[in-house]
Amino acid sequence: EVQLVESGGGLVQPGGSLRLSCAASGFTFSSYEMNWVRQAPGKGLEWVSYISSSGSTIYYADSVKGRFTISRDNAKNSLYLQMNSLRAEDTAVYYCARVPSGPLLDYWGQGTLVTVSS
Amino acid sequence: DIQMTQSPSSVSASVGDRVTITCRASQGISSWLAWYQQKPGKAPKLLIYAASSLQSGVPSRFSGSGSGTDFTLTISSLQPEDFATYYCQQANSFPLITFGQGTRLEIK
Lengths: 118, 108
Description:
The complex is a heterodimer.
Chain A (H helix, E strand, L loop, with lengths): L2 E5 L2 E3 L5 E8 L7 E7 L5 E7 L6 E3 L7 E6 L4 E6 L8 E8 L7 E2 L3 E5 L2
Parallel strand pairs in A: 2-11
Antiparallel strand pairs in A: 1-3, 3-8, 4-5, 4-9, 5-6, 7-8, 9-10, 9-11
Chain B lengths: L3 E4 L2 E4 L5 E7 L7 E6 L6 E5 L3 E2 L7 E6 L2 E6 L9 E6 L7 E2 L3 E5 L1
Parallel strand pairs in B: 2-11
Antiparallel strand pairs in B: 1-3, 3-8, 4-5, 4-9, 5-6, 7-8, 9-10, 9-11
């Protein structure tokens, strides 16, 4: 069974940093591209970042470019999102999601809540 | 950037009704469109990909159609478990994907 489990969320002050993790199991993690998608409270879905299966290709949404860094450790079956210079508007549930053979997201984790507030 | 606009933003319907949700892209995206269902407090679930292909395990009462800029998600006979929020997602510029703003399907 495919499982994605996010962790690392919490309350952080504006300007602070947080590192999210996504632990993958039930599939060959190193063969799949991955994404982070977020959802602000009561709002819609916003794509945040993409990483290729090898980690060699990375993309970011303009809203987080220069502040967030996506990475992965295929030996540990884990995906990461380092978030720096956090702002109130970064408050959201952050989901990791798998990319199958096509351009879509077929499995999502349960999400981890990040709250940026003083 | 490709913008996705869903309509309506919310809809009320009864069990057994047929419901259609529309998604319009700001430019042509061929058939690079997916639909997701999200229930409160849960992660989104993939329903439809490539505009009209049903994801494995999704009931056949869900169907998708369209190409270019205009797409629809149809639920042929609403079941109690279908009341949720639905999102479209363009994949034409993958991996730079964008979602519609969502359509909330409520019980009448």
